[in-house]
Amino acid sequence: MRASPVRLPSGRLIAVLVALVLAAGCGRSKAPQADGAGRPAGKLGPVIGVTLLTRTHPFYQELEAGLRAAADERGYQLLVQAGEFDVAKQKDQVADFLVRKVAAIVVCPCDSRSIGTSIKAANDAGVPVFTADIAVLDPSVKVVCHVASDNEAGGRLAARAVVRALEGQGSVAIIDHPEVESVIQRVRGFTDELAATPGVRVVARLSGRGVKDGAFRTAEDILQSHRDLGAIFGINDDSALGALAAVEKAGRQGRVVIVGFDAIPEARRAIAEGRIHADVVQQPRLIGRQTIEAIAGYLAGETVPAQVLIPCSLFTQEDARREAAGGAAR
Question: Domains of the chain (ranges plus CATH)?
């Protein structure tokens, strides 16, 4: 027996049809998702891959903050990673960026020479590379723009501070990190400036790998070998703070002048307390911002400079007192 058709009143029929249409519409599409800045996902800008030297150091935390602020203003997405001083790890990160087909790559090399093979791979893939803080030392590869502190000038500032503290006479040790291009520039500026003062001579130049514990051990060796050492130049603040710990352990505080590079909060406190003599100040947020500006110009088809150097300044105990007075006034 054939079933009789079910007949709905016309009003109910219309309501059912409307519900079916609405349900079908919901099944076909969803409300657009928004990113962290509230922009619709479909309107996000180019993806930029960033591999930092490290994310543990305040300098690179500030540099990353500058990158993110400028990128957010332009609607760029950042994929930020860090090699943590391991160039093999950093090479893997660059390879991953290429697989993801990013629009550009920013590198702060863990090793200025070894990273060249990864830059070459990006060149071959047609992905523009920019460097921040640390340059690449492989002349066969192409980097669109390098943005960094004027490290050579900063090294000269550090040397002048040492010469003044030693009153033009004494021996100096350098706690180095020669795998990194920015450090090479700092040390070059430092030694070139010292050459103008024959009474001050470099008696040791050893690597501390840019980290506190390495610098501490290196400084201990230097202090044992040079009983009359007058000063130590630490190529970054981890090096200066490691040297400070070694000097204090040896009971030679007040007899060995320490000058660092970066002026992170811990070093500023040590300067205020008279435990570190002076520090070279960089502008990491500005380095990050200028790097994004260079990328934006390049992606817009503009000609961008091959190098952008950001000035450094010197932070002394007098500056620390002014800073403390300003904080107290606020």
Answer: 44-149+284-309 (3.40.50.2300), 151-282+316-325 (3.40.50.2300)
